[in-house]
Amino acid sequence: MERDFLLDDAKLAKLVAREAAIMNQNKMVKSAVILPLVRSSEGYQVLFEKRSMDLRHQPGEICFPGGGIEDNDEGPMEAAIRETCEELGLVKTDIEMICPLDIVVSPFNAIIYPFAAFILDADRININSEVEEIIPIPLDYLLHKPPQIHQLLVNIQTTEDFPFHLIPQGHNYPFRKINYPQIFYQYEGTVVWGLTAQILTHFLHLLQIG
After folding, report:
1. Distance between CA atoms of residues 197 and 184, nearest Å
2. If both were cysteines, with which of 36, 56, 155, 206 could 47 make a disulfide (CB 3.0 to 4.6 Å apart)?
């Protein structure tokens, strides 16, 4: 005979002390990126990477420097700095952190921890083999040139063994289409879109609201 579950004071104390987290985050791919700013005589610029065409994952895409969070990292910020240093040929003292940006939970089972930071001397940048080129875009341009926004509709598809008999309306259940807005910035032939554009838009909004 099974014993009744006992919710005792010790279990309650653990629940009371618990802090909320992102559900199932241990099963998600975690990465961290830096939105890099540089100061120049012409004002601030945001630096973007064009990924090498030799990479298997998203070759030729425009992105921010960054990468996966490893088990031995102290946290997302350390991972973002490490990956940025590797890709841009910098050392930690070349990077001056500004602030963390809002965490992105993508619909594709990934969590991205973005940070805004200054690159203190852009002349020290020496890209590695993962990066085809660095593309600077004036911050003032990004602030005053609204992006294009288009809609991506994602349909729900079920597997052959999906238990329709367990849900109301069975095969006629009205699964919603997911409306996933896609933001596009264009500058002299460079297109910034996807999660990179989403992070950029968030940062620009923070600047605009002061």
Report:
1. 7
2. 36
> Helix, strand or coil for residue 164?
helix
Given a cut of 60, is residue 83 above it in pLDDT? yes
pLDDT of 127: 96
Give me the pLDDT at residue 194, please.
94
Span 171-184, mean pLDDT? 92
For 24-209, which CATH superfamily applies?
A: Nucleoside Triphosphate Pyrophosphohydrolase (3.90.79.10)
pLDDT over 80 (residue 92) = yes
| 38 close to 44: Cβ distance less than 8 angstroms | yes
Q: What are the CA-CA distances from residue 34 to residues 2, 27, 55, 114, 169 (Å)?
A: 52, 23, 20, 6, 46
CA-CA-CA-CA torsion sign (177, 178, 183, 184):
negative
